[in-house]
Amino acid sequence: MIKVNNLQKIYGKGHTATHALKGISLQVNSGEFVAVMGRSGSGKSTLLHLLGLLDAPTSGEISIDNQNVLALSAEEQAQFRLSQLGYVFQEFSLISELTVLENVYIPAVCLARENHFRQRAKGILETVGLGDRLTHYPHEVSGGEQQRAAIARALINQPKILFADEPTASLDISSAKVVLELFKKLNRETGQTIVMVTHEPEDKNYVDRVIWLKDGLIESS
Question: What is the pLDDT of residue 36?
Answer without folding.
Answer: 97
